[in-house]
Amino acid sequence: MRAKWLVLCVAVLAVAGLSGCGSNGGSGGSDVSADVDAVVGVGLANCVKCHSAATAQTYNWLRGSHGNSNLRPSSLHGEGSSCQPCHNQKLENTNLSEIFTPEEIGVDRDGNPVFADQNRDVIACESCHGDGSAHRGVGPIPVPRPDWEQCTQCHDHAEGVRHADDFGLLASSVGASAHNNSAEGTDGLHASTTRCQRCHSTEGSIALSGYTGDADVMHLMDDLEPIAAEEELHALTCAACHVPHKDEGRWVSFLVNDNDLAEGNWDPNANGVPDQFDFCTSCHTYYNQDGVLIGSGSTASGTAPHYHNTAWYRILPSTHYDDPATGAEMDVSTVEGYNIRQTINGEVNENPCFDCHGHEFRTNTRRSRDIPEADDYAPDYGYTIHTQWASSGHAGGLLKAKYAADSGSRSEENVDNVMMAGASDETSGGGFTHYNWDRSGRQSCQMCHTATGFANYVSDPEGYDPLNNDFSHLVGWDGNADEDGSPQNELLYCWGCHENAATGVLRVTGAVTAVYTYNDQPIVFPDVGASNTCVVCHSGRGNNEEASTSSRFAGHHAPAAADLFSEYSHVAYEYPGLDYSNPLREDGSPFFAHDTIGVDSGQGPCVSCHMANNANHTFAVVEKDENGLITDVLNKSLCDTCHTPGASYEITSAKLEEESEGYQNAGALIQDLINQENSLSNYTGAVINNGNELENDRGAFQNAKLPSDEPGGFAHNRYYVKRAIFDAIDWVDNGVLDGTIADYSATYPEGAHWLGTTRP
C-alpha cells in the first residue's frame, strides 16, 4: 500500500524529513525498522553535530518559523505554559546559546536582528522527526518524513484554541483534501505515465516543474520515462507546494526550462512576479505562456487546449473565467465564471487562490450533483461549500447554469457550451448581471452588488467611500470615473463576507447600523452574531417612515432583515394610528420570536435558519419542485422547537406553500386594486402610483411591492407584512381605514384566506 506522506511544509511553519543521511528516509510516515518504544531523545545539540548550521536543512530551519527567526513568540515558554506544547515541545529554548554561533538569522517585529545563538522558543528536529537515539547518522529515525498525524500536534486547532482563526484544522484539511489522494478508498494517483506524474504526484510536480502550459507542452513529456513506478510515488502534499525547511512556496523559484517555452519564469499572468497564481495554474492551467486562455482548444472558442480538453470540470477557466464579450449591459449579459482577484488596489494579490480556497483543496464540481454511494469513493461525491455557494443566489446560480448546459459528453463542444453558460437575469443572477456595477453612476450600489464594495464597506462603514473601490482586477476597468466600467462583473465571493475564507472568519463582527434613519436617529439593529453579516445588505436601503415617492420599493430588493426587525426598520408604510409592533401573548410574552432565533448561540436568525443544514452555503431553507412548489423544509427541527409537531401551526412543506401562495395572491390583489385591473377599482377611480399626492396612496403603492421585493416576508415576519398589505387594501377600497376589507375569495382565494376580512 502506498505510504502516506504529508510533509508539513506550510509557508509559515516548515520542517520536512532529514535527507542525505542513513535513515530510511525513502519511506513515509513512521515506517521504521527499530523498536520505536526504545528510542529516546538526544536533543538539538546532537542533531547539529552532523546537521550543522552550514548544511542546507539546518541553515534553512534556523531562518524559518520553526527556528523562530522572527522571535514570535518573543518570550520563553517552559513547562506548564499553554504555549509550550507547540512552541517549545522539546524544551530546547535555553540551550541555543550553547549550540549555535552568533550568526544573524532574521529580524523581529521591531526590526531588531535575531541571532542563531539567541535563546528562544524553537520547534526542534525531534519535535517533528521523533527521538533520535537510534539514528546516529546511519540508523532509522521514527519519522523521516513527518506525516499529517505528526503535524496535527500543532497544526490542528479546535474552536477556542489560540491561532484557530489563522490556521484552523490545517493539517487535517490537507490530509482530507483532493490533493492527498493516497488515503485508503481512493482510486490511486493516476500517475502511471510521465505526463500524469507531473501533476498527480509530489515527486513529479517537483522534478517535472518545467513542463507547464497547454496540452502541446504537456505532450513534450511523452518521450520521457516515468520518474518512478506509480506505487513508489506520493500524493500531492505540502512538500509539493512548499520548500522543505524554508518559509517559501515553490513559486518563489519556479522556473520554466528544458522545453520549447521561453526561458525564465513561468508567468502566465505577465505581472513579472512569481506568485501563487502562477504556481497553482502550473497544473490548474488558466493561461499558457503566451497569455492565451486555456479551454477546449477548439477553433470556435479561440482557446489553447488543456490536456484534459474534453472534460470541462478539469478546466479551471470553465468556472473561473468571465468572458468580457458578454458583459453587463451588453446584448448578452452573463457572468460565466468567478473573476479571480489577481490584484488588490492595483497591487499584486499574493494569495488570489486562497481568497476562496484554503488547504482543503476539494470542490467536487464534477460530482456535487451525484447521490453519494455507499462505497469507498463516497467522500469524493456530494456538495462542498464551494459548489453550494456557486449554486446560490450570491453566485447568481452560476453553477446551476453550468450543470444545465452540460450534456454529459466528453467533447470539445460540451466544454465550450459549459464555458459559455453562466449567471444571468434569467437565472438568479440579476443582482449581479442586471447592471454594470463597477462603472461610474453605480457607486452607491457597490456595497451590496460587488464583493469589493461589500468588503470595503463592512471594514469601515463610517469611512467608506465607494470612489475608493478598486476593480483593477476586472478586464478593462479604468477607474471610478469610467462611464463604461469593465464588461466583467463580480459576484458576492467568499472573500466578500469572509476575512479568511479558509477558516470562515467573518468581516462583520458587531451590530449593524442601517444606511437610513428613523425619526432622524440612526437605526442600530440588534447584535445577532454571525447573522450581522446578512443584515448589512438585507436590511434594505430605506424605509417608508414617509411614504416614498420612488417607483421602486423603498426597502429595495430582498430586505429580509428589514422585515425581520421591522420594529427598528419600519420598512413598510405604516398607516398613522395603527399598531405594527410585534404581537404579544395574553401573558405579555413575545408571540413573535423569529428575530431572536439563534441569538444565544451566536449564530442569529439568518444563519440558524438558512445555514444549519448540510447545504448551508446554498442558503436554502426549502426545496422546491420543477413548478416552484415547496416540497421539503430543510431545517424543520429548528421550526419544531416552537411550532409543535401535530399542532395547527406545525411547519410543514404544505403549510409553507399555503402561506407563500396566500402572501403572493394577496400581493396580486392589492396590485390589481391600485392599477384598476381584473375588474377591480379603487376609491380614486384612477391608477395609484408613486406620484399620488396623498401619502396614504403612495403608501399603498409601496406596500403592494412587498411580496415581489421580499418574497420570504410571510416567513420572516408574517404579521407585519400581512398588516401592511391588509391596511393598503383597506385604504384603497374606499379611502377609509375601518379595519375591514371585502371578501375577495371568489377571485383571489388564497390571498383572501390568508388576509381574512378583519385586520390581523
List key phrases describing it.
760 residues; mainly alpha; two-stranded antiparallel ribbon; 16 strands; 6% strand; elongated
Strand content: 5-15%
Shape: elongated
List how many beta strands DSSP finds.
16
Query: How much helix, percentage-wise, in residues?
Result: 25-40%
- Unreliable sequence segments: 1-34, 256-262
On the 0 to 100 scale, the average pLDDT is 88
Q: What separation lies between the terminal Cα atoms?
A: 69 Å
Radius of gyration: 31 Å
What characterizes the major β-sheet?
2 strands, antiparallel
The total count of helices amounts to 32
Query: Strands of the largest sheet, in order across it?
Result: 1-2
- Structural class assignment: mainly alpha
Compact overview of the structure:
By secondary structure, the protein is mainly α. A hairpin with a 2-residue loop joins strand 1 and strand 2.
Describe the structure.
The chain has 760 residues and is mainly alpha-helical. The chain has 32 helices and 16 strands. The protein is 28% helix and 6% strand. The strands form 8 sheets. It has a two-stranded antiparallel ribbon. The chain has a two-stranded antiparallel ribbon with strand order 3-4. Strands 5-6 form a two-stranded antiparallel sheet. The protein is elongated. The N and C termini lie far apart (69 Å). 47% of the residues are buried.
